Amino acid sequence: MKLIVNGASLDIDQARTIEELLVELKLAGKGAIVELNQEILDKSQHAETRLANGDKVEIVHFVGGG
Prior knowledge:
- This protein has one helix spanning 18-24; strands at 2-5, 8-11, 33-36, 39-41, 56-60.
- A hairpin with a 2-residue loop joins strand 1 and strand 2.
- The protein is mostly beta strands and 66 residues long.
- It has a five-stranded mixed β-sheet with strand order 2-1-5-3-4, with no helix packed on it.
- InterPro entries: Beta-grasp_dom_sf (IPR012675), Mopterin_synth/thiamin_S_b (IPR016155), Thi_S (IPR010035), ThiS/MoaD-like (IPR003749).
């Protein structure tokens, strides 16, 4: 399946939901905010929101530092 993730074309083999995509991108549990096709998703929707070919996903995650 081909997705646009943060503006870049990405071929995804395993992910079928937002939650699975975050796992595949090693962003699970990192406090990511996800926008799917210009709609911000609540974290509670990640496991049930299915991806489709051509979806546009924007992911923002926080990085701590000092």
